[in-house]
Amino acid sequence: xxxxxxxxxxxxxxxxxxxxxxxxxxxxxxxxxxxxxxxxxxxxxxxxxxxxxxxxxxxxxxxxxxxxxxxxxxxxxxxxxxxxxxxxxxxxxxxxxxxxxxxxxxxxxxxxxxxxxxxxxxxxxxxxxxxxxxxxxxxxxxxxxxxxxxxxxxxxxxxxxxxxxxxxxxxxxxxxxxxxxxxxxxxxxxxxxxxxxxxxxxxxxxxxxxxxxxxxxxxxxxxxxxxxxxxxxxxxxxxxxxxxxxxxxxxxxxxxxxxxxxxxxxxxxxxxxxxxxxxxxxxxxxxxxxxxxxxxxxxxxxxxxxxxxxxxxxxxxxxxxxxxxxxxxxxxxxxxxxxxxxxxxxxxxxxxxxxxxxxxxxxxxxxxxxxxxxxxxxxxxxxxxxxxxxxxxxxxxxxxxxxxxxxxxxxxxxxxxxxxxxxxxxxxxxxxxxxxxxxxxxxxxxxxxxxxxxxxxxxxxxxx
Length: 464
Prior knowledge:
Layout: E1 4-12, H1 19-33, E2 39-42, H2 44-52, H3 56-62, E3 66-69, H4 80-84, H5 89-111, H6 129-136, E4 141-142, E5 155-157, E6 160-163, E7 177-180, H7 190-204, E8 209-215, H8 233-251, E9 256-259, H9 264-267, E10 276-278, H10 279-287, E11 296-298, E12 301-303, H11 305-322, E13 328-330, E14 348-351, H12 352-369, E15 376-377, E16 382-383, H13 385-402, E17 408-411, H14 424-431, H15 443-452, E18 457-458
Parallel strand pairs: 1-2, 1-8, 1-9, 2-3, 4-6, 7-8
Antiparallel strand pairs: 5-6, 5-18, 10-13, 11-12, 14-17, 15-16
Helix pairs in contact: 1-3, 1-8, 2-5, 5-6, 7-8, 10-11, 10-13, 11-12, 11-13
């Protein structure tokens, strides 16, 4: 029987209402009483406020659940998108680290553990955060929104599993689902409506998958966003009763498992990471490249375009240096290039010497920087990494089949197919939201999202 994994996560963020502390505690209590664990994404400022209010009983209840990170100053100025938008790839990373490290340290100090996930406040998504999350040991990304989507499925991006942008049905696997429980709890018909919504998701996952359910604890008390008016006490209590009933209803299904963000690496392991692909396996991957920059799936694994680039470069470099066909190459995460890639308009013939010179240099560059080069100087032209990847694929296939590099390698214009997964409409819609300044333009964030789409690949569920 296929398992539906239910990920319930809560953005613990409001600092204006003392009652929001109690909302978070009540949710934690209800989940614990029902044998379920949630993922509590906590804002650094909120944590400091609860400590100032001496709300350690609230923190004790939250500590029984998975603890994530939801920015240091939710709603503060500047927003993460605002302070990262002017920066390039490397500068944006360090700006994020400088501004957000305090909140992560606050969580470690209070709960004694590194957050198990990060998710940006509102629409403040940015690709520059991913290398910093890896540096800090934060292993997953959990949010309802992002600029990247992959057929309504969980995916790897920036080297970590992402549960975001899971809207609707799409792709060649059963969909994952996302929905949020909002202001309606505590009103007539709310419980029945959310049960029906869950049933729709449940039936849609006949082969198993994840149902991602989000909420903001303060919504159990706050009349409406950005106000401090409280719901009547009776409505608040009725909301908790309905939430308890919904958790019981979901947990009453034999093929439902409550999970937290801590479980995502187990459910969606990166089976390609650290694996040595044989020369013959590299040949098969190379033959599938054609003239497109895109990820590939094989034998229950997924390999990003950046990982393909790295394996081809290392394989060619070792073969050239040792003057024999290398036995294979290891798959390692690489970030995309730091700035825009060069395009090519004509088909060119690259002499063998061009690849003999380029591959070892590239392999050294990857080892030193952990990211793809912005441009590659070959004999026939200076090209971007996409052009080189597709040309290298043809060279790899020939090398494995014939035991030597071809005398010439064709260099073609390529299709950066990975860019189709960057959601420009969602990004621009988020910039017009209530959290950013009027007229905010995050065009550079979209540019960086495209460059880091080199790291995109499906996250494959191990068992359902």
